[in-house]
Amino acid sequence: MPALRDSDRVLVIDRKLFRDDNTRLFVGVVEECDEDVMRVRGYPFHLSPYEISGAERHGDERVRIISLAAGMKAGFRQRVHENPENLPGKEPKKD
């Protein structure tokens, strides 16, 4: 069973780069979801660390493409292909 499906509601919290930055939120509905990417239609919100008034909607309806694998700390293994024929370097493997 997939974790995300079309028409699911999501809340995306963008990472702050500096301590005094506004917290940026994106609330929306999943239009389409792949294994590691989703397209979401919704609205951005900003939360100021110095105001208690609450969230302020900041902008019109938007569509965002969000990578689900961007924040994951997974190992990356580089794939090395065999040398094609007639290239300098190591000799091709002999079976």
Description:
- The chain is mainly β.
- It has one domain.
- The protein is 0% helix and 37% strand.
- The protein contains no helices and five strands.
- The chain has strands spanning 9-13, 23-33, 37-47, 56-57, 62-67.
- Strands 1, 2, 3, 4 and 5 form a five-stranded antiparallel beta sheet that branches.
- The model has no long low-confidence stretch (mean pLDDT 77).
Write a short abstract of this structure.
The protein is mainly beta.
Q: Determine the strand fraction and express it as a percent band.
A: 35-45%
Total beta-strand segments: 5
The low-confidence runs, each spanning 5 or more residues with pLDDT under 50, are none
Number of helices: 0
Shape: elongated
Q: Helical proportion?
A: under 10%
Average predicted local confidence, pLDDT: 77
Structural class: mainly beta
Major sheet characteristics:
5 strands, antiparallel
Give the ordered list of helices and strands: EEEEE
Distance between the termini: 43 Å
* Count of all domains: 1
In angstroms, what is the radius of gyration?
22 Å
What characteristics describe this protein?
single chain, 95 residues, mainly beta, 5-stranded antiparallel β-sheet, elongated
Q: How are the elements arranged and paired?
A:
Layout: E1 9-13, E2 23-33, E3 37-47, E4 56-57, E5 62-67
Antiparallel strand pairs: 1-2, 2-3, 3-4, 3-5
